[in-house]
Amino acid sequence: MSTTPVIDDACGLRERKKRETRRAINLAALDLVEEKGFASVTTEEIAARAGVSARTFFNYFPSKEAAVIGTTAEELESYAAALEEETQGEPPLDALRRILAGMLAPASVDRELRAKRRRILLGEPALAPALVGNNIRIENALTAALERRLGVRPGESLEPRLTVAVAIAAVRASIEHQQNGGSGRLERNIDQAFDRIAAGLR
Question: How far apart are CA 68 and CA 65, in angstroms?
Fold first, then answer.
């Protein structure tokens, strides 16, 4: 008799527990930063709040900055897959607008976590350097996906990387506008930024 279903169930359980642990650490980090401010939070406190050991914390995230930002390899893969899957009539820039705005949207699958993450990113300028590194990871993943979508070899054309870089810059500028007391809602500012890009900046 085949044992494949048992193996599949065990693998599925392990993956689910990993996702739950990763989410618990991310949520603990966000909660603590909201309560105390980013500078006052330690990785030990995050681990304790999440109910894991310090060693387990570092198995999932390399730093407290990474735990707060919380972008995982699985999320990067899902963003890349969404871009690579061409929607009829949707230009790459519009697809990037939808995907990047969705990363910040509280209406996403995990509403509580994403809403907290968004508040922290808007309220903690100290996270800016870590966000730059996170943006580079996202940029590389999306560039590779757009190259596959356009059917070009890696590095063959500047267009995919330029398109992704400009899209990420639009979102980053909108966030920094909010962080510095700028007017308007984040979603509306992101839409306006992409409209300006599509029209061609003067």
Answer: 5
Query: Are 130 and 46 in a shared domain?
Result: no
Domain extent, residue 49, equals 1-70
Which tokens is 39 given? Answer: 């500078």
Asked if 32 and 41 count as a contact pair (C-beta separation under 8 A), the reply is yes
Return the structure tokens found at 1.
Answer: 């008799």
Asked whether the beta carbons of 142 and 84 are under 8 A apart, the reply is: no
Determine if the pTM surpasses 0.85. Answer: no
CA distance 123 to 49: 21
Tens digit of each residue's pLDDT, the chain (202 residues)? 555 565 556 667 887 888 889 889 999 999 999 999 999 999 999 999 999 999 999 999 888 988 998 877 777 888 899 998 877 888 899 999 988 887 776 554 566 777 778 788 778 888 878 877 888 888 999 999 999 999 999 999 999 999 999 998 998 888 888 878 888 888 899 999 999 998 886 5
Compute CA distances 12 → 15, 74, 99, 115, whole Å.
Answer: 5, 15, 27, 27
The total of structural domains in the chain comes to 2
